[in-house]
Amino acid sequence: MQYETPYAAPTLTVDLVGFQVIHGELCVLILKRPNEPFSGTWALPGGYNPEGETTEAALQRIIRHKISIDIDKDFSYIEQLYTFDTVARDPRGHAVAVTYLACGRAIELPSLDYETSFTPIVALPELAYDHADIIDYAHKRLAAKLLYTNIAFAFMPPKFTLTELQSTYEALLGRKLDKRNFRKKILSQDIISPSGELRTEAAHRPAQLYQFDHQELREVTETF
Amino acid sequence: MQYETPYAAPTLTVDLVGFQVIHGELCVLILKRPNEPFSGTWALPGGYNPEGETTEAALQRIIRHKISIDIDKDFSYIEQLYTFDTVARDPRGHAVAVTYLACGRAIELPSLDYETSFTPIVALPELAYDHADIIDYAHKRLAAKLLYTNIAFAFMPPKFTLTELQSTYEALLGRKLDKRNFRKKILSQDIISPSGELRTEAAHRPAQLYQFDHQELREVTETF
DNA sequence: TCAAAAGTGTTCAGGATACACCCATGC
DNA sequence: GCATGGGTGTATCCTGAACACTTTTGA
Fold first, then answer.
1. Cβ atoms < 10 Å from Cβ of B35
2. Nearest residue of chain A to residue B6 (CA atoms)
């Protein structure tokens, strides 16, 4: 196509919806914006994607810079979520925002000049832009994927009990599951194996420890 | 974030994967590129997205300009497919491509200076860039959505027989379905209703005509 | 009367759901 | 010995899959 005026691209931004489960609650990574616009308001972490940098690389750089964590190292899984046109959304004018969804476990946030937090999705503060909708959308995607993939691997430590795994499923789905049916189902999916070790710390019968067979996303035929 | 140099955004492009079913075959809209790069090679229609225009608006404009059809009028359904980083893909350098998936029926292509075609996906020519992969991805998404939504509405005329509907499902899924099971299933989904009219043109028993209850995407609980 | 597509039911197997008690350990 | 979570099996229902013949029309 020909343009009379030189081609000018819209501003491109990338944002992260970073999840982990803490104390049986699904939490999402947010920060209190130190700068305008929406200074002082909580929002998803994100920033500008300049020419010459892929969206994943830009996100990696921005999260390292703004949150001081490393996406590849600290999150176990990442996928692209959706691309939003922000004509009406962003007071700075037209921009396009590519959003990513990431899942991890036991991520510690370094303390910074401004607040960052993994906040339970049931207790989120007011958020800038339409970030609350984006988190909802990511949560729906995540709950759906739980039913037909092994994505739970990204939330679990290397060794875990079936009860701990069930608790993660319940946190992500937002509902209770039957213990016997959960065990039958998860074992029939052939995505985890017993490690042979037992967890003996507690004042009750020791639990068998399991591990995920794969640390990459796989689809399963069985569903919940 | 601060930048030493002024912020420069990557080139933003939009591409369309446009589907319709012709003679029981799933077909996709491609054109023979009149310009470099890849001049003379078949590719998905697409173009540049300048600042100030949403990706959907840019796509609308580009398809009207390049194919002389109107997305809103000629396609019955459109959704965003995926956003690709094209660092390695595009010989012109770094670009970000937002792709859309659209579905329609009985779309007639006006003749132009260069070739455009709804080509059966089983008989696609060599395509520019990684457009063949993008079409595969779109096809998978479509087949998945067929199982848990009413998306077939976008491929069907206002009135149709159950056999015609089954043929569309078979074209999209790439496999044959059992007639009795299909009818039980589709009727249990409560997404179509008999119109009361019959199709009597042919040399066999007349068929009941059905219509979709809704012309927007809905999810169904029942699946195939 | 024949060709061609429309229309219709049953059986079977496997998965989903609901549900309650005994087991092994630390204190 | 008791509190705590670990671990297990069965009965029922529902859904998915396989499968063949009769009906109605136009030519």
1. 10
2. A50
Hey, what amino acid is at A41? Answer: T
The DSSP call for residue A149 is B
Distance of B155 CA from C12 C1′ (whole Å) = 35
**pLDDT 10s digits, A109-154:** 999 999 999 999 999 999 999 999 999 999 999 999 999 999 999 9
Considering CB atoms only, which of B11, B48, B94 is closest to A1? B48
Phi-psi region of A157 (alpha: psi -120 to 50; beta: other; left: phi over 0): beta
Q: Which of B10, B53, B87 sits opposite A12 (nearest CB)?
A: B10
Residue A115 designated active-site: yes
Contacts of B54 in chain A (CB under 8 A): 85, 87, 94
For residues A185-202, average pLDDT: 94
Pairwise pLDDT comparison (A156 vs A91), residue with the higher score: A156
The predicted model scores a pTM of: 0.94
> What domains does chain B contain, in order, with CATH numbers?
11-146 (3.90.79.10), 151-212 (1.10.10.10)
Structure tokens at A61: 């750089």
Q: Mind listing the pLDDT tens digit for each residue in A46-70?
A: 999 999 999 999 999 999 999 999 9
Q: Are strands B25-32 and B42-43 parallel, antiparallel or unpaired?
A: antiparallel
- Say if residue B222's pLDDT is above 60: no
Residue A1 is predicted with a pLDDT of 44
B82 CB neighbours in chain A (<8 A) are 80
